[in-house]
Amino acid sequence: MKLYSYFRSSASYRVRIALNLKGIAYDIVPIHVLRGGEDGGPRHRDASYRALNPQARVPALELDDGTILTQSQAILEWIEETHPTPALLPREPVLRAKVRAIAAIPCADIQALQNTTTLDRLKTQFGADPDALKVWVQAFVGDGLRAIEALLPAPAPFAFGETPTFADVCLVPQLVAARRFGLDLTPFPKILAAEAAMKGLDAVQRAAPEAQPDAE
Amino acid sequence: MKLYSYFRSSASYRVRIALNLKGIAYDIVPIHVLRGGEDGGPRHRDASYRALNPQARVPALELDDGTILTQSQAILEWIEETHPTPALLPREPVLRAKVRAIAAIPCADIQALQNTTTLDRLKTQFGADPDALKVWVQAFVGDGLRAIEALLPAPAPFAFGETPTFADVCLVPQLVAARRFGLDLTPFPKILAAEAAMKGLDAVQRAAPEAQPDAE
Predict the structure, then answer these.
(1) pLDDT at A33
(2) Crossing angle, helix A116-126 and helix B116-126, to 10 degrees?
(3) What is the pLDDT of residue B166?
(4) Do residues B130 and B66 share a domain?
């Protein structure tokens, strides 16, 4: 299995965590989203990468038969369905929905507002400077984390009990971006507790941006 | 079951389609996202609604025992797990991942960039006028639909074969927003074919924004 990944991409980071927690072997193929392309542009916009993933985004997971899976949430569900142990979703449907709802907040309500394409458009279309981008990202990440903190049960020590779930898998990468943009995380003790539990795991440590072959 | 819904919310529309396709009975509780609140503000920001959904968003699904489910993707998965017939996901894991990847593009890559909160911030933080908002939305919706069109198989007549899946469920509401912002849809024949197949179904017609009790 090959994971097309960018060390700083939170969506790639989610998939790295899940693969590592499941003990699935994979090779990282670094795809730079700012440079490294065949035409001098960013690598992810190369025709050769678009042939793999027409959306020109990371991550993409290439299975051993050449099948390409895209979109981190779809990849996480595939991993869970094909490698059920250790489980990253509870068994009971309402609990599964609650875990998936937490995981969806970074994926659906925050990430699109903080990613490179969006920040680039804010710069080109509205002349946003770094301070304006920080205000923008802090607003949306703050809203999302406040909702998550309100929705989470008490940490035990992971977000939903004694083992990691998709909720923890999606929270850890979100906090990297939150810190990069200077958000004060002290109002989020439940989120920080889940993160601390995750960071104690070797599988999570090996998935970290700074542990990647393309880390800068 | 009660669905807290806003007629024009694409996330609410997804859930209405899925509930109707499954033949699940539910009552609509309209939650206006622009007005109707107890303090003169928007209804979804009321304390009484936040007590149900701390994220103050629609949709939320209230089960008969009072349990509240949030986040449209998590609700769709819960519906599929608890009401498996008719199936809205194929059985084979790779196909399920491909369906979920299409569904994730509107949910994760487009919706956050076109919703009311985001457009309001573009206005207040960057002084965006209606023309600028149109350029912004068209750019992101266009990118997403181009990716979907490239990833979809030939229509048959739904996005993934003879019956609707989560892909169709998420595409139909996305096209409402695409048209509202004046995007040319002629480059997307596969997407339009799936939409046409969906619009032939009574379940989908009953879920439409204009068929809702709160339609304006």
Answers:
(1) 84
(2) 40
(3) 98
(4) no
Nearest by CB: B100 against A63, A74, A151: A74
Of the candidates A73, A78, A105, which has its C-beta nearest B93's C-beta?
Answer: A78
Residues A72 and A98 in one domain: no
Instruction: Point out the residues of chain A with pLDDT beneath 70.
Output: none
From B104's Cα to the closest Cα of chain A, the distance in A is: 7
| C-beta atoms of B126 and A121 within 8 A | no
- Chain B positions in Cβ-Cβ contact with residue A113 (cut-off 8 Å): 112-113, 118
Residue A45: the pLDDT is: 85
**How far apart are the CA of A208 and the nearest CA of chain B, in angstroms?**
22
Out of A54, A67, A121, the one facing B136 most closely (by C-beta) is: A121
From chain A, the residues in CB contact with B70 under 8 A are: 101, 151
Residue B212 belongs to some domain of the structure: no
pLDDT for the residue A75: 98
Neighbours of B44 (CB within 10 A): 23
| A-B contacts at Cβ under 8 angstroms | 136
Determine whether the interchain pair A54/B151 forms a contact, defined as Cβ–Cβ distance below 8 Å: yes
Are residues B164 and B185 located together in one domain of the fold?
yes
Tell whether A7 and A101 lie within a shared domain.
no
Instruction: Measure the CA–CA gap between B10 and A184, rounded to whole angstroms.
Output: 32
B35-58, pLDDT tens digit by residue?
888 888 888 888 899 999 999 999
pLDDT of residue A13: 98
Smallest Cα distance from A119 to chain B, Å: 12
A106, part of any domain: yes
Q: Which tokens is B24 given?
A: 């699940």
Range of the domain at B58: 2-86
Q: Is B191 helix (H, G, I), strand (E, B) or coil?
A: helix
User: How much is the pLDDT for A119?
Assistant: 97
Q: In this structure, what token pair is assigned to residue A49?
A: 């990468």
Mean pLDDT across B206-210: 98
- Give me the pLDDT at residue B109, please: 97
Strand order in the sheet with A68-70: A27-30, A2-5, A60-62, A68-70
pLDDT for A36: 84
Last residue of one domain, picked from the residues B86, B101, B126: B86
- Interface contact flag, B128 A132, Cβ < 8 Å: no
The DSSP code sequence of A107-174 is IIIIHHHHSHHHHHHHHHHH---HHHHHHHHHHHHHHHHHHHHHH----SSBTTBSS--HHHHHHHHH
One domain for residues B138 and B53: no
> Could you report the per-residue pLDDT of B152-189, keeping only the tens digit for each?
999 999 999 999 999 999 999 999 999 999 999 999 99
Residues A44 and A117 in one domain: no
Query: Under an 8 A CB cutoff, do B125 and A135 touch?
Result: yes
Number of domains chain B contains: 2
